[in-house]
Amino acid sequence: MSLIKKIVTWARIKSPWIIHFNTGACNACDIEIIAALTPIYDVERFGVILRGTPRHADVLVCSGPVTRQIKDRLIRIYEQMPEPKFVVACGTCACSGGVFSGCYNVEGGIDQVIPVSAYIPGCPASPRAIIDGVVKLLASVDNASKPAKELVVNGI
Amino acid sequence: MAQALFNIFVFPGFLFVAAFGLTAEYIDRKLYALMQNRIGPPWFQPLADFIKLSAKEDVVPQHADKLVFKLMPIVAMTSILTAFIYIPMWGSNALFAFKGDLVVVMYLLTVPTLTYFLGGWYSRSVYSMIGAARSLTQLFAYEIPLFLSILAPAMLADTWSLSGISEYFSTHPWAILFNIVGFVIAIIALLGKLEKVPFDIPEAETEIVAGAFTEYSGRLLAMFRLAIDMELVVGASLLAAVFLPFGLHYGPAAGFALYLVKVLFIIGLISLARTIVARLRIDQMINFCWKVIAPLAFLQFLADLILKGVHN
Question: What is the pTM of this model?
Answer without folding.
Answer: 0.85
